[in-house]
Structure formats: structure tokens, C-alpha cells
Amino acid sequence: MANILKSSRYFPLQVTIDDREPVALEQEFRKLGNMIIHRRRLAVGDYLLDRDFLVERKSIPDFCLSIKDGRLFTQAGKLVNSRIPACIVLEGKNREFRKTDFSPKAIQGILLSISMAFRLPILRTKNTHESVEVMLQGFKQLTRDKLEEQRFYPRTFHSKPKKDPLLAQKLHILEGFPGIGVDKAERLLMKFGSLQAVFNAEIEDLLLVPGIGKRTVEGMLEILKK
Fold first, then answer.
1. pTM to 2 decimals?
2. Residue 44 and residue 13: Cα distance in Å, rounded?
3. Residue limits of the Helix-hairpin-helix DNA-binding motif class domain (predicted)?
């Protein structure tokens, strides 16, 4: 799993952990290094990776308790409605189910119900170490294009200039070009300072912006010429 993170040495992975989660999982993340860990109360989920992947982690006792009090289906609905790719990580060994009031068939039925009704993956892990590995593997799958470029590009929390009243409009214009989302639009403005400077920049300079490739530049220039 450490190999996944070697490519992020320039852009650390940002992990936001709900402050009610065990410290043991935070320690597992920190062992891998090159991460920015935030610990605060999350309205949805327990773990948020670079604002790209949302995870609700449940131990087997908590999973069963949340079935009884109805929290499980409410939480599943919130995950789906968050519009962020999400999953549930069910942590613990099968023998722990024997200490609950649910039969194996009942558990299987509930897992299928959530997976089918909410289209929400439920991933099984045995311990905290496996839970962190599964979260990072899921994140890797969702951001494989970024990993192929040998970088992570987390969306920064405080990178937007505060005194630019036209910033939202500028970002909106740049986001209209193929292959340019909010992250790349922010980086272009941070490097060049204005839309005019972006549009007049040399191709070589545009390619120096993290995440901007030749195909993206060619697509932008083609639109500007029309």
C-alpha cells in the first residue's frame, strides 16, 4: 500500500476524519506518511479523501446496532445524496456476528438490500489496518488518471484569493473547457493571474501547470480559435 502513496510526494493526500472515529485508524494513515490529516465533525460519513471519496466505517457491533435503531439506512441515504463517490466499510471478523441478535441469513439480506437499493458498495475488512488499505485502494481506483500522471491533486481549502470579486466567473469560464475542472482552473489562475494571461500563455508554459496535459491544451486552443 505504501507504493500507492510514493507518487504523491509533491501533493500530499488530504484525509478528513470524523472526530468520533478511533485514534487507531488515524495512526494507520499517519504510518504511511505524506498525508495532511484533518480531524473534525463530518455531517456525512467518517472519512473524506481529497473530497473525492467518502467512507462510512462501521465495526460489526455498531453495524448491528445501527440496524436496530434505523441509523444505517439513514446514513446510507446521506452517503448517496452527498454526490461524492462513497462506500461503507464493515470492519470485523465473521465470528463477531455470533455475539449479535442477527442470523447470518439476516445479515446477508441486509447487506444485499443496501447494495441493491442504494447502489452503495459494502466492503469487508478484518481490522483497522485493512480498513485503511481498502479506503486507499478505493481512492486509487477513483483517481487512477491522477496516479498515472504520478501525482495527487487535492482540492485546496484556502487557495482562492479572497479579494477577487470576479473569481467565481473566471473559474466558471475556465471550467467550460474540456478536461478543466475546478482544481485545474484554480491552478491556472494561480500561475497566470488572469484569464487573458492564461489564453495568451505559451503552450510550454501551460504544460508546466500540474494536471494540464497536451490534450487539454490542444482542446482549449481549438475552442479559442473558433
1. 0.61
2. 20
3. 172-191, 204-223
